[in-house]
Amino acid sequence: MSLRLSRPKPDTHAPQSDGETFLRRFLGDPKRTGAVAPSSPFLAREMARAVDPMAPGLVVELGPGTGPVTKALIARGIRRERLLLVEFDPYFCNLLAGRFPRARVLRGDAYALGETLAGRVTQPVAAVVSSLPLLNETPERRMALLDDAFALMGPEGVFVQFTYGLRSPMPREALAGRYVARSGPPILRNLPPASVWTYRLRGSAAEPKVMKFRDHAERLGARFGERCRATETMIGRHSDRVKEIIKREAAAFGRRGDRP
Question: Concatenated DSSP letters for 176-229?
Fold first, then answer.
């Protein structure tokens, strides 16, 4: 069921940090909140990396909370107007509407995605990015969510989900023959450590070579930048010594040149 979102109202009793916000919402409804802290920037960036910013259409985010993944998606190059944020908690809804005024925020049940978005999606959906606590739900309900997401996206879409566990949050036996699941390396700088899973329709061309090349190029660029900075630091530390060696060698060369 889709619920109407009211405009944000000042809250003089609001927590002072996102961490406090998550903890209080978790204590109020542990099953639906699913975490005691928002996703770290490292996890949020890895989730955003799975979305191709050049793919046309909306990006639907499920359970955005205080918006760390939303922020990472924007940094990835997704325009705010392309973001559709589905959140059940009314406090988070008001917070998101204030932080991302050009994005669309809907209060509704992500596990009834078709009903929540009925009549509200008038263009293709490129990706669905989920921070929902899937393991709190039955396997049947998790797979129904995945099926609903691909009914919106079509064969070229990607469903992105993080988990704290080692296994796919979508049941492997139910994925067989229908979806392809892949996971990235564990993000150890998230607390607790997490990994990002992507799901695509089997046999689709939704993972073009150009996207793989762009992702590889970004990683190589980041490594190259780190090495350049390390080299600059090393040169800076030893510059005086290098200058002294050059002067000494130049003087020695001059003395050798003066010999008959």
Answer: TTTEEEEE---BTTSSS-BEEEEEEETT---S-HHHHHHHHHHHHHHHHHHHHH
| Tokens 């921070």 sit on residue | 131
Angle at 7 between CA 152 and CA 44, to 5 degrees: 50
Q: Report d(CA 227, CA 220) in Å as an integer.
A: 11
* Conformational region of residue 23, where left means phi above 0, alpha means psi within -120 to 50, and beta covers everything else: alpha
Helices (H), 1-125: 18-28, 30-33, 41-49, 68-76, 90-99, 113-116
Please determine, for residue 131, whether its predicted confidence score (pLDDT) is greater than 60: yes
Amino acid identity at 240: D
Q: Give the phi and the psi of residue 41 in degrees, each rounded to 5.
A: -60, -30
Q: Give the neighbor-by-neighbor strand order of the sheet with 195-201.
A: 2-3, 104-108, 83-87, 58-62, 125-130, 158-163, 195-201, 179-183
Q: Residues of the chain with pLDDT > 90: what percent?
A: 57
- Residue 232 Rama label (left phi>0; alpha psi -120 to 50; beta): alpha
Residue among 159, 239, 247 at smallest CA distance from 206 = 159
Question: Left, alpha or beta for 59 (phi > 0: left; psi -120 to 50: alpha)?
Answer: beta
Q: Which has more confidence, 81 or 32?
A: 81
Q: Are 131 and 63 in contact (CB under 8 A)?
A: yes
